[in-house]
Amino acid sequence: MTEQPGAAAQGPLRAAVLGTGAWGTTFAMVLADAGCDVAMWGRSPEVCDQITTAHRNSRNLAGIELPATISASTDAAAVLEGRELVAIAVPSQSARTTLAGLRDAWPAGATAVSLMKGVELGTDERMSQVIAESLGIPEDHVVVVSGPNLAREIAEHQPTATVVAGTDPERVARVAVACSNPYFRPYTNTDVVGVELCGAVKNVIAIAVGIAQGRGFGLNTTATIITRGLVEITRLGRALGAEAETFGGLAGLGDLMATCASPLSRNHTLGRHIGQGLDLREATAATGGTAEGVKSATSVLELAARHGVEMPITAAVVGVLHEGLPVADMATMLLARPKKAERT
Ligand SMILES: NC(=O)c1ccc[n+]([C@@H]2O[C@H](COP(=O)([O-])OP(=O)(O)OC[C@H]3O[C@@H](n4cnc5c(N)ncnc54)[C@H](O)[C@@H]3O)[C@@H](O)[C@H]2O)c1
Ligand SMILES: O=P(O)(O)OC[C@H](O)CO
């Protein structure tokens, strides 16, 4: 492990971003526009070279000009050396292996910032748990950033807020300052479990909305799925110790609204393709990028089962994506369930 400067170090905060996809690149821009010194690590030499020399990432963020100060490299040790804050934006299911490979180069004492929205298959762990385990760092060194944050809109500097959640107040405050700029406003929260579950499960609900819209259903159906989806997320979160207020906030209702409404969302788009009749392989290819809800639907449902929590919309999505449930049977599966009071 390399040593890194303490909080009192002079000059701009030294940050790194792991992953040169749409959100990693956009968050690097957010940090740079907040005054941080930013280096990115990616797997593709071509993408890294383009970010450093042409200040663009045409593969993942076409048409966007990046701050000229951002550099990118495939050399993880060089990127990580001396960084106080390291944001992680690789697909959730690859986080563990990616980070295990970077463990020796991890800057001692650095804050890991999870930008990922998923639950790990097999372990059913949230990303902050996966990060802490795979890097061998305490969980309070991990801070989560999650909210209604469609990458392209933020890359276009459209005004957006987010939630910065963690259990070490000083680290949370430093991350909030590090990503605060004229178009990006962080709010802080101590409810890591709630914020992470909101981010992961809204992707599953967005797939359900996409499927409904792909089948030609209108806004009554959309509103029904979003509202009952929020009930599902809240129910699971409460069972896992999250705070009720988190679910009505930016990471919960806010992100659910953005993801379920926007054609920019990969999860929504994938669901729409499924609703229009494509199979999962075809829909994945037509969507491009990482639709996290495809895999997280299964781990979320497992997590819910282990805690005795009912998640019918998530179960229906798992049924359609992974168990051969015909799309046409999804509405029947949900509407024919036994009647119940709304607040249960
Ligand atoms: N795109 C958004 O608008 C957005 C916003 C908020 C949060 N997120 C979350 O951020 C995370 C990353 O999303 P993204 O949009 O940047 O995804 P992306 O698909 O655009 O990019 C993922 C990046 O990870 C790399 N990668 C893929 N597989 C890898 C592996 N096995 N090992 C190492 N690197 C690998 C890819 O090369 C790419 O650079 C996801 O969890 C997503 O839910 C995305
Ligand atoms: O493109 P999606 O579906 O991964 O959604 C992107 C962000 O999570 C929206 O906040």
UniProtKB/TrEMBL annotation:
The active site is at 202 (proton acceptor). Pathway: Membrane lipid metabolism; glycerophospholipid metabolism. NAD(+) binds at residues 19-24, 151, 266. Its main location: cytoplasm. InterPro entries: 6-PGluconate_DH-like_C_sf, 6PGD_dom2, G3P_DH_NAD-dep, G3P_DH_NAD-dep_C, G3P_DH_NAD-dep_N, NAD(P)-bd_dom_sf. Sn-glycerol 3-phosphate binds at residues 117, 147, 202, 255, 265-267. SUPFAM superfamilies: 6-phosphogluconate dehydrogenase C-terminal domain-like, NAD(P)-binding Rossmann-fold domains. GO terms for molecular function: glycerol-3-phosphate dehydrogenase (NAD+) activity; glycerol-3-phosphate dehydrogenase (NADP+) activity; NAD binding. Keywords: Cytoplasm, Lipid biosynthesis, Lipid metabolism, NAD, NADP, Nucleotide-binding, Oxidoreductase, Phospholipid biosynthesis, Phospholipid metabolism. PROSITE patterns: NAD_G3PDH. Belongs to the NAD-dependent glycerol-3-phosphate dehydrogenase family. Its EC number is 1.1.1.94. One of its GO terms (cellular component) is cytosol. GO terms for biological process: carbohydrate metabolic process; glycerol-3-phosphate biosynthetic process; glycerol-3-phosphate catabolic process; glycerophospholipid metabolic process; phospholipid biosynthetic process. Residues 191-330 form the Glycerol-3-phosphate dehydrogenase NAD-dependent C-terminal domain. It catalyses: sn-glycerol 3-phosphate + NADP(+) = dihydroxyacetone phosphate + NADPH + H(+); sn-glycerol 3-phosphate + NAD(+) = dihydroxyacetone phosphate + NADH + H(+). It is found in: Cytoplasm. Catalyzes the reduction of the glycolytic intermediate dihydroxyacetone phosphate (DHAP) to sn-glycerol 3-phosphate (G3P), the key precursor for phospholipid synthesis. It comes from the Bacteria. The gene is gpsA. The lineage of its organism: Bacteria, Bacillati, Actinomycetota, Actinomycetes, Micrococcales. Substrate binds at residues 117, 266-267. NADPH binds at residues 23, 43, 117, 151, 266, 292. This is Glycerol-3-phosphate dehydrogenase [NAD(P)+]. Residues 16-170 form the Glycerol-3-phosphate dehydrogenase NAD-dependent N-terminal domain.
